[in-house]
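The protein record filed below.
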Amino acid sequence: MYHFNFLNSLLYQFIKKNKELNFIQIGANDGKRFDPIHEFIKYNKHFVEGLVVEPVKDYYNQLCETYKEYPKIKPLNLAIHNSLKKTFIFKVGK
């Protein structure tokens, strides 16, 4: 079920005016859980193009699976920091 909210309303208005939407999502997780734009992308995949960034390999693999049918969505497995070249990322157990 698609939940229409304020963010989706803004995104729809943007597409209506500009005919397309380009975005970068940092911390995309698996592309579904706790994702405020997944449903919007799902129903508007011909109008959106973006980068979805996820540093945790397990979530990145799920993210790739989520967006495998979306050629305009590019998953990236990396972390972003203003100065560190390497760091540790901890994942909470199940």
Q: What stands out?
A: The first helix runs from residue 6 to 18. Residues 12 and 44 are 9 Å apart (CA to CA). The chain has a mean pLDDT of 92.
